[in-house]
Specification:
The protein is mainly alpha-helical. It has a single domain, classed as Tetracycline Repressor, domain 2 (Orthogonal Bundle). The protein contains nine helices and no strands. The protein has helices spanning 2-21, 29-36, 40-46, 50-74, 80-102, 109-117, 122-148, 157-178, 182-192. The longest helix is centred in the C-terminal third of the chain and has 27 residues, at 122-148. It is elongated and about 60 Å long. InterPro entries: Homeodomain-like_sf, HTH_TetR, Tet_transcr_reg_TetR-rel_C_sf, TetR_C. Residues 28-47 bind DNA.
């Protein structure tokens, strides 16, 4: 059983790397199997289709994002707006690490997949929507805390969180296009300032 778990994880890890490095459509099953050092029979044992694998990839990338960026950023050891600043720092560091590993700026894996597949694969679109909702919820909690202690005045919490999420995705896309994670450092402070007034 341990060997099976390890084989499955190698497939998922390889797919995470290849899809984030390139794209969903540019990566085939044979290439994933080669990098994972496994046969196609093993691949299809765990994942009847590439779509099934992609859902596992999204879940794994979400776990990594939570572990390396979201949880360290949004701990309540800092005042709310400082947490947002820390989030920008962690986001930039995460992308710098990815660029060092891949040789170029990969951008947001969820944004990349959404742009590529949201209009053609409803199952993947829904899974990505869940991921974005979870990130938005992190912003909502910070904004609620900021309002509660008077760091900011009344705002539309949901709309402000959505605007922060949209800004984050746009910032990552610009950084990817420029092939330069410094774009995140330069534009990140504006994320902290986003406010949508109530009503």
């Amino acid at each position: 059983m341990t060997d099976q778990r390890e084989t499955r994880q190698r497939i998922v890890d390889s797919a995470c790397d290849l899809i984030h490095r390139r794209s969903y459509t540019a990566v085939g099953v044979a290439e994933i199997c080669a990098q994972a050092r496994t046969r196609k029979g093993s691949f299809y044992h765990f994942f009847p289709s590439k779509q099934d694998l992609s859902l596992a990839v999204i879940d794994e990338l979400r776990r990594i994002l939570d572990e390396q960026v979201l949880s360290p950023s949004f701990g309540r050891d800092l005042p709310p707006l400082r947490r947002l600043e820390r989030f920008v720092d962690h986001l930039c560091g995460f992308q710098q690490g990815a660029m060092a590993a891949m040789g170029r700026m990969p951008g947001c894996p969820f944004g990349n997949l959404a742009l590529e597949l949201a209009t053609t694969d409803e199952v993947i679109r829904r899974r990505l929507e869940v991921v974005f909702a979870a990130i938005r919820a992190r912003f909502e909690h910070v904004i609620e805390d900021a309002v509660a202690i008077g760091e900011t005045g009344p705002v539309d919490v949901r709309a402000t969180a959505e605007a922060m999420l949209a800004y984050m995705e746009g910032m990552l896309m610009l950084a990817k296009t420029a092939n330069d994670p410094a774009v995140i450092r330069r534009l990140g402070p504006a994320l902290v300032q986003i406010r949508i007034p109530p009503g």
